Each structure stands twice: as structure tokens, then as C-alpha cells.
Amino acid sequence: MPSFEQEEITMTMIYITHKEATVKAGISAMLAANCDLPLVSLDQSQLSCSARGTLITDYDHGMQIAGKRRAACDQALKIIVVTNRTREWDIRNAVDGGIHGILTQDCDAGELAEAILQLQSEALFLSRCISGRARAAMRREKLTSREHQVLHSLGKGLCNKSIARTLGIAEVTVKIHLGNLMIKLGASTRTQAIVIANVLGLLEFDPEMVNGSHDGSTRWMTSREKAAGENLRMAGYFNDIPSPA
Description:
The chain is of the alpha/beta class and 245 residues long. The protein is 46% helix and 10% strand. It is built from ten helices and six strands, in the order βαββαβαβαβαααααα. The protein has helices spanning 21-34, 59-71, 88-96, 109-118, 131-139, 145-155, 160-167, 171-185, 190-200, 223-234, and strands at 14-16, 39-41, 53-57, 77-83, 101-104, 125-126. The chain has a six-stranded parallel β-sheet with strand order 2-1-3-4-5-6, sandwiched between helices. The relative contact order is 0.11. Residues 3-9, 206-222 and 237-245 have low confidence and may be disordered.
């Protein structure tokens, strides 16, 4: 197991800004016990735009900082997110968005150390438990922006005519986009498309409607979405879906 005493680390600072207080405290305690590098635990708003070293944070803040750094062509800060948002689409968006490391919230000090050390010379670190999911995510063809819109309308229980009216496009165009997104998701029916999209992280449902934990990333259903979700559950489509990691 890597340790900070066994390897030479060239960076000078580790910043910890996780939005969940218990996770932030746990990370700080693990690193303080295993690391002799300078640690700074601070509120997210206190992070300097010129900070250099490694940032350990939550998914949303990491994506925000990564976007700003990428726009400024600034790679002086390695960004590691510690999160339970590890479905395929979450991983794909993080990697595409400039995140350097993804760890699950049950990671230990050894994995934290390994991530920090590896990112000194490599571009990406993923928890071993999500590496397979990450490979699948990178192989899967991404949906277009219009296909995303059609999918989200589908998740609200809208028919093709209503989707066309909502998006301001022809109904035949909706059918084309729907067919394309179903091929990309590997779905043979509209219901399967909704279920698969939820598992992959493309749609967010009330955790009471879909198996999985509410980690702050899941929004509550609208009344129309609740009705659609209840119909799916009664049909048994959620019975064998594994909970997101």
C-alpha cells in the first residue's frame, strides 16, 4: 500500500473543501495521520483561483473548478472528487470535464495516498471498484443535446406529440431522436430506455421510486414523474436493478 513516507512528492499543498462536513472531516483526519505535507481544510469559497497542488472535494465543486481551470488552460491543480456519484454518466462527465481522480466515499487512507501519488505523473486515477464502469462509460456513445432533451421529456411521461410541441420540433424528428437514443442505450422499449437511463445516471428519480441512496445528487420527482415512476415500479422494471455504487 502506498504511503507518503515511501514516495517523493513534488507538490506542496493539499486542499480539502468537501461540502459534506463528515466526509471533509474524515479525509482531513486520514491525511493528517498519514501525510506530512501541508494540509488546508477550507470552505469552497475560500479556494484561491491560483491554488497549486491537489484539491480534494465533492463532485459538483470539482466540476465547477475543473471547468474554470480548463477554460484558463491551468493544470497546476490536480482535482480529486470523493463522491457516491459513480454511475456511468457521472464518471464520463467527470473525466470529460477535467477531473483527475474519482474516489468513492468509503475510500481509505491507502487509496487516498495512491491517488495523490499517482497523479504526480499520470493524468487520471479511478477507484478500483469503478474502473470497469468507467471503461464502459468511455466506450458508450454519448447522447446529443437534442437526444438528452427527448430523453428527459420521455422521463416525464410525455408522448411523442407532446415532446415535439415542448421542444418545438416535428413529431417525426422526435421519433428519429428517440430511435437513436434507444440504440445508444441498448433499449428496445421506451420503458427500458427510462430504466437504463436512470441506472447510468442520465435521469434522476426520487430514491423512493428507484433503488439507490439519496446522496444529494438526486432530485425529487414532479407529480407527473412520480406517476410514471410508480407505473414502472408496479410493472416490476425496478426489481432487479442494482443500487448505484
